[in-house]
Write a structure and sequence with these properties.
Length: 213
């Protein structure tokens, strides 16, 4: 009995060790691609050599209305309306594009995620093409690669809609290569989360200033 428990403990320890190593490798890959993309953009490489990378994630559901710790009166017995916040972080600009919508307008499935990515990429490429035009550089044809970083949520990210989107990006001539990288479960803190925290801090500051006026 004791020997069996020891063997199970050793197996769990080995699994935990492998998980930590995988997380470290993933973090190293993430940082290397981020640095590489930033360097290429700063160097203003030719359009056909450009590499773009984005982090995509949902924030925690927001409640409308939100009473924080207090929910007075009859509203206590009603469920607040959920608002979804989907963020796309761009490495080259260090900024977050936020999509906010109510639960009655759309869901959080793969089709919704793919639609928001397409809308975002259209805006991004219009901006980049205008920049290259101002620099007098060629801005047509496919770029080299696009990397999309996701967490491990199957319903939102690891599904046929997102995977087919990668094929669409290549077949439509947007890029020559498209990659989806799913961060290790339990180690998904990324730049999207950092931006979400900044949004929350800014929101709380505004609420505080309104309360003291």
């Amino acid at each position: 009995m004791i020997q069996k428990e020891e063997e199970e403990l050793l197996e769990l320890t080995a699994q935990a060790s492998r998980h930590v190593v995988m997380a470290q490798v993933m973090r190293d890959v993430y940082n290397r691609i981020k640095k590489f993309v930033e360097l290429l953009f700063k160097a203003r490489v030719q359009w056909k050599f450009m590499v773009l990378a984005f982090v995509l994630d949902f924030s925690q559901n927001l409640n409308v209305p939100s009473y924080s710790e207090e929910q007075p009166g009859e509203t206590y017995y009603f469920s607040p309306l959920n608002a979804y916040l989907f963020g796309i972080y761009t490495f080259i600009h260090d900024r977050l594009k936020a999509f906010v919508y109510l639960e009655g307008e759309a869901k959080k499935g793969g089709n919704n995620v793919a639609s928001m990515i397409i809308h975002f990429l259209k805006e991004t490429f219009i901006e980049l093409k205008e920049l290259y035009k101002e620099l007098g550089m060629k801005n047509d044809g496919p770029i080299d690669s696009i990397y999309l970083f996701f967490d491990n949520c199957g319903g939102q990210n690891k599904n046929r809609f997102v995977i087919r989107l990668l094929h669409l990006l290549v077949l439509s001539g947007i890029c020559k290569n498209a990659f989806a990288i799913f961060l290790i479960r339990g180690h998904t803190k990324n730049d999207c989360d950092r931006m979400f925290n900044l949004v929350k801090i800014n929101y709380r500051k505004k609420i505080f200033l309104l309360q003291i006026k």
